[in-house]
Design a protein that fits this description.
alpha+beta; homohexamer; 5-stranded mixed sheet; 136 residues; Tetrahydropterin Synthase, Chain A
Chain lengths: 136, 136, 136, 136, 136, 136
């Protein structure tokens, strides 16, 4: 009997989309106003889903407090109130698009969960744009 | 041509998470403030999804009024304004976690739908915590 | 590495559910107040999902501005502020249920995307009723 | 000790904005795509607020079930699944803008409440456009 | 130059509406299913507004972290995961209606804020029912 | 007969809270993680309210398309995808707190509306923190 438990979370960050090996004209053509060299930012809304079976002893799939704490340590403490380009090592040479941020979050959470659950990450960059990554 | 139609619903209930065969210390360690012996409560938000093919005559997968009425009879009338531990027989010896409530709702709706559709149940216990069960 | 990027959109329209080859009694029995001959209407909320792999050069699965423009041209310009029964050719002899509208939107977007991505369409007819179609 | 209790409600309707004493050119200039002669429609979201003092015997300002029933009888039964221009007498010669709909709802509810409470009406025509009327 | 800063918060609780000096018949007639002797519960959503002038040195009306902490200490720690009738002294002989809960929260926050700001409390008992109290 | 019409809007921006005449220790004590020298960012949600009387000829208080365009020109084009500290002249020597941003938006919109309406500005910096300014 398999279920998926979800926990919502939140962080704010600044970022800029561009490639240092492209000139301004090409960066503007591809990334538009997301290429503001002074950065812009977002309230990122996160939904983390873990799939597994119910622990018959407790009735929990996972203790939601444990999941909340893992998300706080791995995601919020790492990304909240940060400049993704300047403060986060993984984005030194990788564009902090919502797609790449979702993959980073999935990788960090999956390493922490040690394969105990199948994992999904849903990341809202704005109320109208979001991405889902399930590790496949 | 397969689609899934969803209907949202709502009920309020009180509950307590604990095991009568554990002592207070263990119940508090595992269930924390959810183990308040006087109970606490939630506004549960429910999304029921039914998957099947379109009836070419009506253009409906299911008459949403029929689905609304089934949810009312099987879920709302059974759980709304109830104490899950004391008023619902299935939870006399089973912890009313959101996982177990979702399974109960799925079982009751599936019995009523007689296998006419593949069924999914999404249950929000709080705006930040929810569970999905699809019967597998 | 496969992800799904979602874009939300919105349109308003009037419609009526009925079959011209049924008499009033049968139309009322099956479609109830949705059969008002003077029409009623909805704010339709749309979520379009496209599944594929990240473009390693840009970090995008799809340029969300391109996706936004495709949705505007194929869906908003075609359905917004329209009477679905009278103004949209596909619904001249087909009931504009949320199921059939979702299939129409999927077909139009899929033709435009030329099979570059796997496509999903989620359509809210009201805040409590919605449908998902993935083309299968 | 004065408080305000709010109840949210919902109805769907079709409408068209135009004046029969203007020609097409002027109607299009002023009302744009809202002037579709075949109508379009909305999911209207309603928030009704009643201001008064707490009944010390019950702890209620108003029995919310009574307020819910008044809104159902005066607003939902009168406007839901209707064509505002054709089915609602007050809009035979009055444009069913969200402003005029809000005033109509306020007038009908206020007549029913017999001045027992100060009344406010908030009406969402779309998720981004809404109006507040307080009878002043 | 006067502004109002709002902070949203959340707590869950169980309650029952009834008067011990009324018999069952009268309690059921007035309070309906809210009179379940085994209690039911809600996710209460809270919006606290403080009105005052901007501190020209910081650009803050109030440090939102201070406001968040005051709400945590005065409201969340006092009401979250509680049975309002049994665990909260103020409701031993007072019905825990959303009106009376809003007044209690206002009184506790106002005492803590020492009259530094004009205060408003908005309390959602369900997504469709809420109350506003401003101390007047 | 006075009503208030509201239009919701949206922009993303980066910012940093600090005073250049304070040392790091004091800036950190007052502004905490909002003082990240590399900036962070938000999705700002805006609600603009205009109060006035209904134009009896059109049934509009204001043409919502006109209001939408004014907000686009005065607010979105000026603040969207910007670094508030570096790209917006008004914040060169003024902290871009949500309070000060709300006042700037109110001033710009009020100048454009030429006193035709009483104006209110509601600005969400996060889903839990927001501010209201009415020009008084």
């Amino acid at each position: 009997m398999s279920l998926t438990v979800y926990r919502k979370s939140h962080f704010n960050a600044a970022h800029r989309l561009y490639r240092s090996d492209w000139d301004d004209e090409k960066n503007n053509a591809v990334f538009g106003k997301c290429n503001n060299p002074n950065f812009h930012g977002h309230n990122y809304e996160l939904e983390v889903g873990v799939t597994g079976t119910i622990n018959q002893e407790t009735g929990f799939l996972i203790d939601i407090v444990e999941l909340k704490n893992i998300i706080k340590e791995e995601v919020e403490d790492y990304l909240d109130h940060k400049n993704l380009n300047l403060d986060v090592p993984e984005f030194k040479n990788l564009n902090p698009t919502m797609e790449n941020i979702a993959v980073l979050i999935w990788d960090k959470l999956n390493a922490k969960l040690l394969g105990r659950f199948k994992l999904s990450v849903t990341l809202y960059e704005t109320p109208r744009n979001f991405v889902v990554y399930t590790g496949n």
